[in-house]
Amino acid sequence: MKPCADVIVIGAGIIGAACAQALAARGLRVLVLDAGLHGATAAGMGHLLVLDDNPAELALSKHSLQRWREIAPALPDSCAYRSNGTLWLAANAEEMAVAEHKYQVLRAQGVACELVGGPALRQREPALREGLEGGLLINQDGILYAPATARWMLQANGIEQRQARVSAIEGNQVRLDDGQWLSAEAVVLANGIQATDLCPELPIEPKKGHLLITDRYPGSVTHTLVELGYVTSAHNASGPSTACNIQPRPTGQLFIGASRQFGTTDPAVEGWMLARMLKRATEYMPGLAQLNGIRAWTGFRAASPDGLPLVGRHPRQDGLWLAVGHEGLGVTTAPATADLLVAQLFGETPPLAAEPYLPERFLGVAACA
Amino acid sequence: MSPEQTDVLIIGAGPAGLAAALAAASSTARIVLLDDNPLAGGQIWRDGPQAELPEQARSLRERVLGHPNVRHCPGTRVIASAGPNTLLVEDAERGWQIRYDKLILCTGARELLLPFPGWTLPGVTGAGGLQALIKAGLPVRDQALVIAGSGPLLLASAATARHNGARIVRIAEQAARGAVAGFAAQLPRWPHKLLQSFSLFDRQYRTGTHVLAALGSDRLEGVRLSQQGNIVEVACDRLACGFGLIPNSQLGQALGCALEQQALAVDGWQATSVAGVYAAGECSGFGGSELALVEGAIAGHAAVGEHPAAQALWTRRARWQGFARALNRAFALNPALKALATADTLVCRCEDVAYAELSGHVGWREAKLASRCGMGACQGRVCGAAVQHLFGWQPSAPRPPFSPARIETLLCLEDISS
To answer: Where are the domains of chain A?
Structure first.
């Protein structure tokens, strides 16, 4: 079979797009196949944030945020990139202690951030309720409109896009829905939640989330506001959970999240879950109750058991590379994922240690590496 | 808070909804009649300071709203489904849930507005839109008006405008002369309709004529028309342009009702594919107010189990369905209307999305994500239908909130998981 490109990337979301762009930048011919299913890139908030639940997550998100700052000047307006900062909200002394700990960890890593006391919090964000303990502002976090950003990345020279559903993968060969086989030097699987359709051995679970967007209320919020309870309540819970997450869009609209549910693939907006999520947000910003919500939707995060993505060679399929399992952090970590993947493909030393993200931590060591 | 309970919930207080309420009220059923307008009457019987309602409308409205079994909720919108047989609704003050045994959807139709160069200039409205504005008090005295698009609504709109002192300088009907003449020749079969619309035939009426562009820089100054093959320009103060009506089927679609050619599919009892849910009037297919009245009455009787009374109306319905068929045939849209927009013509006014930003895409969802078309305050109510007409993209069923709603109202959905 004649190779149709140097690399085939499956999935045109932000991860596939970032990988394709980085591969094309090395002079490779890249074919991007997408089934048009619209995954997490289309559904998510486009929040760019440093997270420090564990050292590997911090290293990946911090490197990626640096990469986004380098990319930002080239992004067209439609990508709506803003470096508006994340303000983590502490409702009580216990959460403030978490904020202080985060502050120490992030400062030690050179991440610009500042602790904000209760009164100063309302000066910065007057719409917040009285009586919050304080917060932690991560100055260089940001936001962007991920669907437009992925499309921009895919416009790079050397990338060909095709709408096609892949029905099987065998190493560096893929079979399309119509039965046609395509091959390349390497195949990169970057199709998020759909990855298990092609590789059932991948330990990826869908984690459903709801989002709502309001009408335009310019100037009401400046930073992306996230409750620190998020760290404990939403990330680690196994049942349905919600956390306050309010993001101002450049249009003056507000995104309101976040919810998490396991064990469902039903995309319907569930009223009770939407209401619980909104209630949580109004507990932090009471004035939200009087704003108009204009649209709600859901999406599915591709969650791995340890919350870290799988980036690297598939240990049991020669020629197949993985870039999946980014959960809620795919937009943030797309450039770092691309850097890791490209370095491994070219046998170079990656800009950050690749080990914590290698697929073999779940799939076992390669038989024929 | 526990939901309000009712036997029959009717959504929409136009002719179909009023007729449904009156029919259902002949039993002992409790009825809630909900409407998003401040006054009952729907679009065709829209009331206001400059409106003159026909006697039939006035009397029907009085009988329904004065009926002890009927509770009228004006200015109220349906926001979401809140569990089995329950809807979350909102008015200016509050949000609450209503639980029903039977639901009758009389959600009407809206104008098809197709984008053309200049259509977003101040002074350009829909044809029905202008009529509504005038009834609500918009002054048009001594203004020069062009009314364009398709269907009898153009004539009704012209009549309202003229009655309020406007000068109608042109009525541009896109349908060909032969089609309109054929339709007019059949009108004696429906004499009442004849009086309502085509008695308004006048010397400014042109068939085979459609708008090409609205002219002007900051506001409308004139209209360029393709008039029976020639290009003409007409100076005017206002342009009212509507290309017929499209059914408001979204709520039914969200509740799972099957569609048939964009309208809610119904059987002989006006029952939809979802048990206990009926549909009547324009949302189940365009046919005018007489058809809406008889369909509403059938749905109202059927919903309270009075099937003989409903069946007694079938002949009358068949007669007005004949009228609807003739109408829809005569005013079928000319394919040339799909080519009015140029690359920079806005299609989505809420998000400023131009035609060129949409034309390369394969479907509605992809185009929406790429361009934000339909993501603004109207949530695709206007551009969704235009895009469907222009590109053949089927919009997906709406998700809650069905209309913009206060977040406080959405909080009422919290206790429906049980």
So the answer is: 5-43+146-204+306-363, 86-139+205-303
